[in-house]
Design brief:
alpha+beta, 2 domains, two-stranded antiparallel ribbon, two-stranded antiparallel sheet, 6 strands, 11% strand
Amino acid sequence: MTHRFDGWSIEDVTIENFTDLLPASLSVQIEIFLPPSGSFDTPILRRYLENLKNYEEEDPTFAMTLANRLRVAFQDMGPDTICGKFPNADLPLKRRLRCVAEYLIRAGEFDKLRDENGKLIKKRGILGKLVVIYQPLPKMRETLVRQGLIKK
């Protein structure tokens, strides 16, 4: 997905010109954060785009993006926690993976499990804290197939 960041520079993007410069998939993903409904200004928008780019760039240690590592971990399409899928991950990595999960939620690939009243369903994690349960959505499988990470 790094191709979404080819052909334009983050430094050139403003809240006024983002629809002209960004690919449609990114424009749709960020417009909810922009005025009048959102609170992003240009510096915050650029920082957010930089974070998205980092999520989609390859991690040299694993030769895979954080987003793809999360997608592959959830390829069974079953609900689970990040702690459940990455039990040996250190806390900073788990934090980064939670940020990536939020990114994948906005991209329509993940959702947080909720009960019939709309409250988040949580369970105790490895450290005894309540953690969110993530549910992969069909779009995530399509992304994995399109990138050649799994077969149809």
